[in-house]
């Protein structure tokens, strides 16, 4: 189990190493290295998803490891409270950023709108109320990015229990 301690409460996460081995290991490696400590949920789109794993509170992007293969064809669904790899328009561009679905988002499932979709690799097991609180925060523009929480949602520590 992975625990994300945030300034809004704790989120407990499990990863699915059987169905998404590359993504699960990638995420776990970032947790073990301390990479997520001090990052923020930098993109919140109410009733869609909350995204984190790449920026600090000043909206400076952290350097990441290599991009990974898109495993969206694993049969897992972008259901509410599932974790998926964030990426650019390039299908195999995911690195450290992830998102938690705050509603069922079937249109993100393989094959998606681009023939690939977004890889689900885990799920929230505790802290649903925290995810729901983050989903409700007010957002605006900051450092050229939209949908940024007006009051930073900070991951103070992420670790494996």
Automatic annotation (TrEMBL):
Pfam entry (one): Pro_isomerase
Any one of the GO BP annotations: protein folding
Enzyme superclass (EC): isomerase
Keywords: Isomerase, Rotamase
Catalytic activity reported: [protein]-peptidylproline (omega=180) = [protein]-peptidylproline (omega=0)
EC number: 5.2.1.8
Gene3D superfamilies reported in the protein's UniProt record: Cyclophilin-like (2.40.100.10)
Coiled-coil region list: none
Keyword presence, Mitochondrion: no
Chain ranges of the PPIase cyclophilin-type domain: 1-160
GO molecular function: peptidyl-prolyl cis-trans isomerase activity
Record-linked PROSITE patterns: CSA_PPIASE_1 (PS00170), CSA_PPIASE_2 (PS50072)
Family to which the UniProt record says this protein belongs: Belongs to the cyclophilin-type PPIase family.
Function: PPIases accelerate the folding of proteins. It catalyzes the cis-trans isomerization of proline imidic peptide bonds in oligopeptides.
Identification of the protein by name: Peptidyl-prolyl cis-trans isomerase
Record organism: Candidatus Thioglobus autotrophicus
């Amino acid at each position: 189990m992975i625990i994300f301690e945030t300034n809004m409460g704790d989120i407990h996460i499990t990863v699915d190493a059987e169905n998404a081995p590359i993504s699960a290991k990638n995420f776990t490696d970032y947790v073990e290295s301390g990479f997520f400590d001090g990052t923020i949920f930098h993109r919140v789109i109410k009733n869609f998803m909350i995204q984190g794993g790449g920026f600090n509170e000043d909206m400076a992007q952290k350097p990441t490891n290599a991009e990974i293969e898109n495993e969206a064809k694993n049969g897992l669904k972008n259901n509410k409270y599932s974790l998926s790899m964030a990426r650019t328009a390039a299908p195999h561009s995911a690195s450290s950023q992830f998102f938690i679905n705050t509603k069922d988002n079937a249109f993100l499932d393989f094959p998606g709108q681009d023939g690939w979709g977004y890889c689900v690799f885990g799920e929230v097991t505790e802290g649903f109320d925290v995810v729901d609180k983050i989903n409700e925060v007010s957002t605006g523009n900051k450092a050229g990015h939209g949908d940024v929480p007006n009051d930073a949602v900070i991951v103070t520590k992420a670790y494996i229990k």
